[in-house]
Amino acid sequence: MAAINGVGLSCPSKLTKSTKSQTPKWATNATIRMTASVDEKKKIYTLQKSEEAFTKAKELMPGGVNSPVRAFKSVGGQPIIIDSVKGSHMRDIDGNEYIDYVGSWGPAIIGHADDEVLAALAETMKKGTSFGAPCLLENTLAEMVISAVPSIEMVRFVNSGTEACMGVLRLARAFTGRSKIIKFEGCYHGHADAFLVKAGSGVATLGLPDSPGVPKAATIDTLTAPYNDISAIETLFEEHKGEVAAVILEPVVGNAGYIQPNLDFLAAIRKITIENDALLIFDEVMTGFRLAYGGAQEYFGITPDLTTLGKIIGGGLPVGAYGGRRAIMEMVAPAGPMYQAGTLSGNPLAMTAGIHTLKRLQKPGTYEYLDKITGELTQGILDAGKKTGHAMCGGYIRGMFGFFFAEGPVYNFSDAKKSDTEKFGRFYRGMLEEGVYFAPSQFEAGFTSLAHTQEDIQRTVDAAEKVLKQI
Ligand code: KE4
């Protein structure tokens, strides 16, 4: 089992008095006037255009966004409207630049708008954007995924992580002939009805009591347990002997904030699912190709029966996938009776972006670099927290990280919910003003890329110390 890379859970050291620096004054929602020292050019940080555009957006689309967590509901202020992205940076429509640690929620692991990916897309586009029929590019990406991910002998491409999780759930039920599914509180597996039970990500961010519109019948077979609690799983298997089709989990949680599995947790889950003839599903939509080229299952050395993927395998275009043992996957129509379909599944553009993204990740040194910069970033932020007297804890593995305003340790969603989310909001807005863009919710993770530089990391850590002094 690979050792978990990660920053130890840190507790605040003795407080050292920090000199009070100028506190930025909030002028209005649209214009935040930054006070600068006399020798710095006065810099007006304005969100004027973003505010106007967002006001319009709220008339046109529910909450002004097409995915709830983008709405900044839990961090205050309002979303910045992005004009362009490149490498590790993004620029909003007011011309403000940010170091981006969201990376489109994971896909941008080699950096945004990579020249090689764009060139390949331009070439593919000359042949059309969608065929609605098989194309060679599907074979290419399928071969790459199968050779990379230990559990996958056969794969089905879809258009999102949600679709991947929907498909894999139906497949697990079809293969086992059982209905119950076990998920963990705070884990998020997309917005399909069956998974909207104690879900993470936007559901947690907005504090929604799961979701109206989901009939009891859709969730009656969804059982939940606290993450990292193997005895809770043992109890559920006892109480539902012979009924559990599968256990699905994020092998490293990124949707309740960043939560790592305890060392024996994944192995224990693997053991108990085998003992109960239930399937183990790793939802690697976020961790796939991010913690290792073979995902978390390669990193931890635990092979599930089925795996879901998304984000990175589409390189920024809509792609999801589910895959696993051939005997299971051959149940999927038209090879078998379990139905699942999609108009744009496997389209040549998305396949192209995925292929070129994975090709870049195959280069030697990729994951060592991600480990190095993400470790420096996470440790730097936690050290800044210690220096400024804030209780903080956090961790990272390769290109994924997170931190909480809490003493720690954070082992599960209820621990995460005890963290100081209000302080997270103040920190978030202060960092935005300093030109650093984290995920706009405490209940999300952060992502680095091969495009993040040493300078990006240092600037972020310096900004964190400055903002932590002020909040
Ligand atoms: P999509 O349907 O959003 O492509 O994937 C759903 C999904 C499934 N499984 C895991 C582990 C995921 O993290 C996700 C989606 N992640 C969120 C971020 N926490 C997407 C961002 C959003 O909802 O806007």
Topology of this protein?
Layout: E1 25-26, E2 31-33, E3 44-46, H1 48-60, E4 82-86, E5 89-92, E6 97-100, H2 115-125, H3 136-148, E7 154-158, H4 161-176, E8 180-184, H5 202-205, H6 216-219, E9 222-225, H7 230-239, E10 244-249, H8 265-275, E11 279-283, H9 295-300, E12 306-309, E13 320-324, H10 326-329, H11 348-361, H12 366-387, E14 393-397, E15 400-404, H13 413-417, H14 421-433, E16 436-437, E17 446-447, H15 454-470
Parallel strand pairs: 6-16, 8-9, 8-10, 10-11, 11-12
Antiparallel strand pairs: 1-2, 2-3, 4-5, 5-6, 7-13, 12-13, 14-15, 15-17
Bound molecules: ligand KE4.
Task: Name the CATH superfamily classification of the largest domain.
Answer: Type I PLP-dependent aspartate aminotransferase-like (Major domain)
Strand content: 5-15%
Molecules bound to protein: ligand KE4
Strands of the largest sheet, in order across it? 7-13-12-11-10-8-9
Distance between the termini: 40 Å
Report the biggest beta sheet as strand number plus sense, adding barrel if it closes. Answer: 7 strands, mixed
**CATH class category of the largest domain:** Alpha Beta
**Unreliable stretches:** 1-41
The helix count comes to 15
**Average pLDDT across residues?**
91
Rg to the nearest angstrom? 22 Å
Name the structural class.
alpha/beta
Instruction: Please give the oligomerization state of what you see.
Output: single chain
CATH topology of the largest domain: Aspartate Aminotransferase, domain 2
Work out the number of β strands: 17
What overall form do the CA principal axes indicate? globular
Number of domains: 2
Helical residue percent band: 25-40%
CATH 2nd-level architecture of the largest domain: 3-Layer(aba) Sandwich
